[in-house]
From TrEMBL:
This is Interferon-related developmental regulator 1. It comes from Ilex paraguariensis (yerba mate). Residues 375-428 form the Interferon-related developmental regulator C-terminal domain. Gene3D superfamilies: Leucine-rich Repeat Variant. Residues 1-27 are annotated as: Disordered. It holds the Pfam family IFRD_C.
Amino acid sequence: MGKRNSQRKNAAILDSDDTDSVSSSSTFRSDNVLVSGAEDVQLEKESILDQCLDALYEKRGSTREKALASIIEVFNRYLQHEFVEKNFATLLHQFLNSIKKGSAKEIALASHAIGLLALTTGPGDKAKEILEESVSPISQALKSLSETTKISSLLECLAIITFVGGEEAEETEKSMQIMWQVVHPKLSSNVVATKPSPVMITAVVSAWSFLLTTMDGWTLNSKSWQQSIYYFSTLLDKDDRSVRIAGGEALALIFEMGNLDKFCGEAKGSNDSSTIEGKNSQEFVHIQGLREKILNQVRNLSVEAGGKGSAKKDLNHQRNSFRDILELLEDGYSPDTSLKIGGELLSTTTWAQLIQLNFLKHFLGGGFVKHMQENEFLHDLFDFTPKSKLLLGTEGRISAIEKRLYKSPNSVLSKARTQFLNKQRTLSQDKNTGRFAVGLGEEEV
């Protein structure tokens, strides 16, 4: 996330000119915060947040935008558990008001702020409330497809709040359906069909895939997603590189889950695998053909030569991504990645984990490292223990371990999802054929 070079005094936070893009946020400088210890710093941060919260009631849109940008900056750099605990209802209410009534920029900022609010609270009643209260306003805002930046921010927000607060598969699938309608509207819809931009397509597919990582696969409504595999396949032929990569990663995730048949609708009309095999042999042949088509597309993209005006960095990113996807399709191996954070390694061993990591890293921007060091929800998600936590001993946040074990629904759900996914992959080896049987079950989230 971009940061300004200009330094600001507290009194000028809400009055200075704001020329940043929506993806940036005003920088919260600590020149007058470096006083006498951590308690004074915390009081100063809360004072600034109180000012920003008051400013969200102002009629002037630019004032609210500056307040939201400052809140985002503080939430990125410091986890504000106490402030959120005291002001949760007010924060959520004002953020949602901005989505309902604000400009495109204010909507984008408020969307990001709601996502940060969910990540700060972690799983539980508050996250569930955020999801329940936000889905309808976000869905309504997505129907006016005029600002790409606004749409991308709304999609990211919906993905984050569903990821944190969605406790039931139906809630997650509802959000996935809302996303899908942005680029694939129903024919019966009254919405005027407009051609989505590459940025919008990438945002939808990335957010959709991010939520798919939380689904066990077998609970998916096959009728809802029968066309998705074909759609992702078409994205591999698009001119925009980010669209191709997003489509490829979605396909990799579906293959890793062992659910290509589900997404192609092979099981339509029956849950009995023997009946399916007997009655749908023609469809089985069709799916095998689709698999071969996707394999050829992935193979070509993994060795694509640079075209005119092609950035070398982007081209290398595409090649590396599709080489990893090709290895999954041909040999059943998911990429192993590692990232050093504060001296400790954060590792991923599945496409699902990698997609989660990349999405959260993009959403948090400059706040990613801070959240990975201090956010208990992210520690749970990636099974990551930072050095700072080990050094705390029995002081401060050690009780958070108990929270993870006894209070966080996500901790239980995450482990259950992993166990189910491992079992599912094992079953996939019997169900799928040839090199597309990708049921590796040893990875852990």
